[in-house]
Amino acid sequence: MEKFFRRNFAGYSFLAPWLVGFFLLAIGPILASLYLSFTKYNVVRPPQWIGWDNYTYMVQFDARFWKALQVTFTFVAVSVPAKLVFALGVAMALDKGIRAIGWYRALFYLPSILGGSIAVAILWRQLFNYDGVINSMLRLFGTDGPYWLADPNYSLWTLIVLAVWQFGSPMLIFLAGLRAIPQELYEAAEIDAAGPVRKFFAITVPLLAPVIFFNLVLQMIEAFKSFSGAFIISGGSGAPLDSLLFFTVYLYNEAFSFLRMGYASALAWVLLLIIAGFTAIAFWTSKYWVHYENERG
Amino acid sequence: MSQFNRRRFLQTTAGVAALSTFGLPAFAQDKQIRHFWWGNPERDKRTFAAIELYNAKTPGTVVSGESLGFADYFTKLTTQIAGGNMPDVIQQGYGVLFEYIANGAVVPLDDYVGNSLDISRIDQSAIDAGTVDGKFYALSIGANSHMAIYNSRLYEEAGIRVGSNFDPYGYTYDDLKRMAVEIKDATGIPGTDDNTADYQNFSDFTVQKGANLYNEDGSYGPTQEIIEEYWSIWAAIREAGGTPPGQESAGLAGVSELSQLGVVTGKSATSFLWSNQLVGAQGLMQDTLGAAMYPNTPDMIPGSVIQPSQFVCLTRDSQDPEAATAYMSAFINDLEMTKVLGLERGIPSNSEVRAALEPDLSPAEAVSVAFFDAIQGKTAPLTAPPPSGSGEVEQTFERVAVSVLLGEKSIPEVAADFLAQANAILRRA
Amino acid sequence: MTDTTISNTAALAAEYRANRAKRARRAGLLKHLFLIATSLIMVYPLLWMLASSLKPDNQIFGDLSLWPSTFEWSNYWQGWNALPVSFTRFFWNSTVITVLSVIGNVISCSFAAYAFARLEFTGKTIWFALMMMTLMIPYHVVLIPQYLLFLNLGWVDTYLPLIVPKFLAGDAFFVFLMIQFFRQLPRDLDEAAMIDGCSPFKIYWAIIMPLSLPAMATAAIFSFIWSWEDFLGPLVYLNDMNDYTVPLALRMFTSQDSVSQYGPMFAMSILSILPILIFFVIFQRMIIQGIAMSGLK
What we know:
Chain A is mainly α. Chain A is about 75% helix and about 0% strand. Chain B is of the alpha+beta class. Chains A and C meet through helix 1, helix 4, helix 5, helix 8 and helix 9 of A and helix 1, helix 4, helix 5, helix 6 and helix 7 of C.
């Protein structure tokens, strides 16, 4: 008993604030949403237990649920890798050896600061309108751009561009990670006449793997939950033709526009399970490609 | 849950602001009334000033104002309904009001009428609009109707003049098509926004065709023929070049930002909105706006209704309904308070208040008032409140209409699809 | 990549530094051109907002040029005093909440991260999985249960719901971020310290934290930005306009049924970005300085 206590004391002491927060503030609302997902709940009247009805309705009858899944999966599959590659590239360019580097970093972070504000919604319309900035530039090259925002085939791409453009947070984390790689390793590699490509794959990637892994997992979770961009740009509805019906946009409408809180909770738990599944896969594969240099075994 | 309904009296200085916010208990000798509305800088200043006036002349009651932007208002209200701590007095819009009445978040005012609440000088139509199943629920604080707004400069350049070749209160869809093309030819700017995906215009058209949006049994009113005809009318105007290209309009379906209206962005000469939005739209553009009714069919059956833009309502969670309704009463009747509030929420339903405000109107406000005078007798009677699910039907209309704008499917196909979805929604609701 | 290989190559490395500097200068020029071009894309939205903040309302939407035809400087002081409560108050409120959030996040999350990354205790995997789960649930469905919880605690209409969770490691993002960085630090250091009789807290405070400055700076930057920009929390929990934060106030400028004030809104949006930029530029320096220190190890 005493041994058990001693073995765990330090760990649980450091974990204590989190544990308090988890049990006092976090777990209750999460379990409540799980309960609500089995009920009919319009916020005013008490929730009514309806078993698996929300889930069976979703799968069998709700075409918009499937549409929302499709939109969200496309968004995640394209925007996450693109954003990570972009963020890593810029982080490496901004890592060192440039004057005024702090200001460059701030500039590259700017789009992320603007986040999902009203200003971005207005700006995005002005950029991607048929006679907007993007198409004017395309016209300089002699091509006519499409109706980006109206055409369901293109509208999701403007959101993907928006997501990639707001690459500030993974960039910053990559920067911090790059800074933690000892410079001497690169110098040693140069002595071995290693080119930039080899240095990248032999030093940068393995040593940055924990950070790459972090960014991959977090960006994936964030992309699955992505809300504000699609919400403000589509006017809250996922228009045109549901091409911007992100899962959380659909969920928000069910919860707050149509007051189907029970159904929205069921949607949320389906999303949670999907995200958890993908995260678990990522953690499982990380055994093979993420090594913590200083940890044995 | 009223014990958590804390309010702070200490107007703190900046230095101790953070401390004070960590929950000081309230003193409870005064009656506490919370009034919550969606606002904007102008409305907030006026409303807070009116509240101050009320607090000064009503010892024993302290009204506190709470305001948020429209986009956030209902999210917060929903949370507060769930929490059972809604403010005493809330602002409501016409569409949502009935859902709130149906689910019991808003309570009837009948017990207070004649006592704490005076509605003797309120227009009967406004009282009727706030009455459901014989019970009176909501005080109208501004009348509203569908309005077409047009850029007078562009109309003039195309030689279209009110009184000679344009009757803003009696023109048809054919007239609109002709004018839109004339404007396009004269100025290069399409004459009108495309309303294919505009549910308000569609509801007008339905009534103009002698139907109702909802039948008495709550089923959906518009028929396949009405829907097809509506979309065909707009398709004809679009194909004649009277509107921006279909794809341009498709990108705006479901977007309700005033800043994206065709008249504001300069992409068309006519846009369609609620009359209480005129002043806001005018503020975003340089050319002067004129006001007209929505177009009609040659039969000229009235389609638009006059309905309240906003109500004040008493909520289920009010602890002191007497004091709350007394405040509501002053909010619509007190001449000092209503003078401060002005026309900012729409045309007041109290005739005496209207008369008192008349002299100090801004040009855009004057256009609104003139519009209201002109449409009297040209509007349809107010119908029964929409059933629950109506909001979702509206959103569905805006969504499927995009296929028409993009020309992806034929009009009959989309119309059938829409009807099927609307019926499914109403069955589920 | 142990310390021995590093010291072996250090001498040779010095020789190569001179050559590298030369090549770096040439590459540097290209890099600058590339960076300037991309930062133009990044900075465009800010220029656009700046231009809009100086235009009268009736020119913002019709006229797309980046150069206002008249300069409406009054948007700034008008915006500052547009609402019944002045922006002085909103900025103060935001600063209080944000500063406390940053402190809370950095302390409490680094505690939890230290436990997960360095200490052994029973149930570690399960706690970690539960912590990740809190990241995955869509926020909108826990909003109402959480509101009920805080209401019952009597915290609604105070800053407590916005601040207390930050001191209880409520944001798993930061915990996971710090875990990834802590795991990269050499274990030899804390093992040596342990043999010298250092307590886990001493190790955390004297070894882990100083070596993790880049990670802490990164966390502080994110924490600052996200708290500063958060509007859903303040929206739901604050009732009194005197308590409102800047983002909440910014959303009160536009109106669907009355006069909007776009110019003043853009003016205040510009001002609301400044604290973020200043904090960013200062703290991103710590990412570099932190490394200089850990290089001395």
